[in-house]
Amino acid sequence: MLREPFYDPKKSYEENYARGPFGAFAETEKFQNRGPSSQGPDEASEPKYDFLGNKVYLPFGIPAGPLLNARFVKAALDMRFDIATYKTVRTQEYPCHPHPNVVAVDFEGNLSVEKAAGGLTSKENYDEPLSITNSFGVPSTDPEIWQKDLADAVKYAGTGQVVVGSFQGTKKGDGNVEGFVSDFVLAARLVKETGAKILEVNFSCPNEGTAHLLCFDIPMVRRVSEAIKNEIGDTPLVIKIAYYEDQKALKKLVQDVGNIVDGISAINTIGSAVRTKSGEQALPGEGRLVSGVCGEAIKWAGLEMTERLAKLREELGMKFAIVGVGGVSSVEDFKKYRAAGADAVMSATGAMWNPLLARGIKKEL
Ligand SMILES: Cc1cc2nc3c(=O)[nH]c(=O)nc-3n(C[C@H](O)[C@H](O)[C@H](O)COP(=O)(O)O)c2cc1C
User: What pLDDT shows up at residue 36?
Assistant: First the structure.
């Protein structure tokens, strides 16, 4: 059942940031009485799952994106999403793409890469099975602002919960690769300074107008990952990647970075050109015809990647954690991802339209 989303796509990003979250996330006290370190009734015992060295009640949460700031993260924690990821930040203030940033897409079934290449049509209503497209361009406040806010969110996590800090580097447009790598390292340092216990680097943002996602440039993934690990030491580092069609390339990625990083999160969105029924670009502006599709349509891809990563991990005798993402909206989806080999499971679209999802999964498990 779809509920009022905690991020309201009809409002601008700025308004969501200033006034959100909405719906049940704005009234968490109605659903439970719970301070940051107390336990809810279904969590009377010790948390038994381990996620990258942190005990969690359930290895389930919200990935980078819909939790725009500490108010959103706190609401997610209150609603028992035990792993809450703060939206990807940068080392400098960065604007958001113009409104709208989210629209529903008219599609049922599995969105293969071939089908995505053929383009999609947007629609007015959000209904099930829900798939959307999103394009924000990874906006960021200045570190002066997000560092304090993220530190506040990190502290709020109660027993059996953890906050993940997501970040990425920014290209300066001068082709200076060294500078780009250093910006990732600086971002990692700034996030670590907030006290975040797990860091996630976004190598798969589809909305920046780059034809090739960074995650497909394996030597670069390795170089940046090594540089970040040199900076942050024992703090766990997760890399966020997109769907890989090419198994050889995925194997190479795992071989090259699987022992450097602590976790691999897959997948981000699948890019597709989205137009309205009348043929106009659904999300207006240069470089925004193609945007990132997520929700039900990409579940097959998140599950498949989880399985393939789990097989490669076993074959190569590695230990990295797998974070399964894509189209999770029910307890069955959670179980499928766990069975496929995910150490943790995350939901963005599903959670946005069902803020009670984590509570529901805990009840039904
Ligand atoms: C509103 C929204 C914003 C997002 N922003 C980010 C982001 O800043 N960084 C990131 O790594 N992924 C971002 N994503 C991608 C999600 O983390 C996730 O990988 C993707 O949506 C697939 O999961 P889903 O099918 O559960 O939505 C965003 C997704 C949504 C829906």
Answer: 45
